[in-house]
Amino acid sequence: MKMLAIDTSNFVMGVAVVEENKVIGEIITNLKKNHSVRVMNAVESLLKDCDIAPSELDRIVVAHGPGSYTGVRIGVTIAKTLAWTLNIPLIGVSSLEALAANGRYFDGYIAPLFDARRQQLYTGLYEWNNERGLVEVESDRLVINKDWAEHLKSYNKPILFIGNDLPMHEEALKEVLGEQAVFAHVQQFNPRPSELAFLGMKKEPQSVHTFVPNYIRLAEAEANWLASQQKG
């Protein structure tokens, strides 16, 4: 089974092709550039380099959020279009879950994070199990960094924090958790699309027609519009 994975949910843009237990090809960049212009070129280039025709793909996997609203929309739109055009299954995976996979084999809990501004985080809690793989311990959420740290104090194991936005919140997390907080090395910050693909192998396909991003919260424009309607 050949799978194409796409992640444009944050600054990191990643595309990968995997087959069974082999990573055939992978492209990752961490640049503040327009994903809408670059991602299809990356997909086309990767497939060409791997000598794979689009018709040979069996599934499309996409990081469906949370993250940048624009970035998530781009990835989901392209994934849906490809799945519909090629008539193959579409699978969505949490962007945070894909990032948490970089902490495999860590002896404790894994807390991936993306900055959500105003001291807020998109985050969740995961654990690596040698038999089951990556296991969700607490669902993805939007939370104040210190509130999240206070909540995590009840766990009796070290917690690995991971993600490109970690330096923005490291001080607040360490202040509450002390030595219980472990901070990943920069080499682990970028989510890998190949990890996204392998996570997608274990999930059920979703309907292309009803598939939607998981923003966790409303986009600011949507929230302002709803507020104006309620006032009216």
Short description:
With 232 residues, the protein is of the alpha/beta class.
Task: Give a written overview of the molecule.
The structure is a single chain. With 232 residues, this protein is an alpha/beta fold. It folds into 2 domains: 2-95 and 191-227, 2-Layer Sandwich (Nucleotidyltransferase, domain 5); 99-188, ATPase, nucleotide binding domain (Nucleotidyltransferase, domain 5). It contains 7 helices and 10 strands. It has helices spanning 35-49, 69-86, 95-100, 145-152, 166-177, 193-201, 220-231; strands at residues 2-7, 12-19, 22-30, 59-63, 90-93, 109-115, 120-129, 133-144, 159-162, 181-183. The strands form 2 sheets. The protein has a 5-stranded mixed beta sheet, sandwiched between helices. Helix 1 crosses helix 2 and helix 4 (145-152) crosses helix 5. It is globular and about 50 Å long. The protein starts with a strand and ends with a helix. Mean pLDDT is 94; it is low at 219-223.
The proportion of strand residues reads 25-35%
The global form is globular
- Cα-atom radius of gyration: 18 Å
Distance between the termini: 53 Å
Reading off the top of the CATH hierarchy, the class of the largest domain is best stated as: Alpha Beta
Describe the sheet with the most strands: 5 strands, mixed
Q: What's the count of strands?
A: 10
Helix content: 25-40%
| Gross CATH architecture of the largest domain | 2-Layer Sandwich
